[in-house]
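agent> Task received from the user: take the single chain below, predict its 3D structure, and emit structure tokens. No templates, no multimer pairing.
agent> Plan: (1) validate residues, (2) run structure prediction, (3) serialize to tokens, (4) report one or two observations.
agent> Step 1 OK, no nonstandard residues flagged.
tool_call: predict_structure(input=
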Amino acid sequence: MEVKSVSKNTGISVSKMRRLVDIVRGKPVDEALTLLKFTPSPNARIVAKAVKAAVADAETVYRVPSAELRIVNIFADEAQTLKRYRAGARRRVKPILKRSSHITVIVGEQEA
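)
tool_result: status=success, residues=112
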């Protein structure tokens, strides 16, 4: 039994998200949430929110307690890029790319 949860269009770039996602991949849910809680990055709250959503789905649909769940897979994909422009020297335009990402969390039961 695996439960998938997707958090879309987070305001953080994929490269910053992947650093956090790699920390918790394959860990039990309780340990992963503890790691994210004490990670000094403010973006860890967004990853923790996605993990909590997947755990809540597993608890309500399959009646599995969170102590028996682990993160089977978690990854960050690139989302739409907002394109903004800023005035540059000599009447030129400098592009600004505001990147965002999607976080996909798959939780499942731990093997005994």
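agent> Step 4: summary for the user.
Residues 2-109 form a domain with the Ribosomal Protein L22; Chain A fold (CATH 3.90.470.10).
agent> Done.
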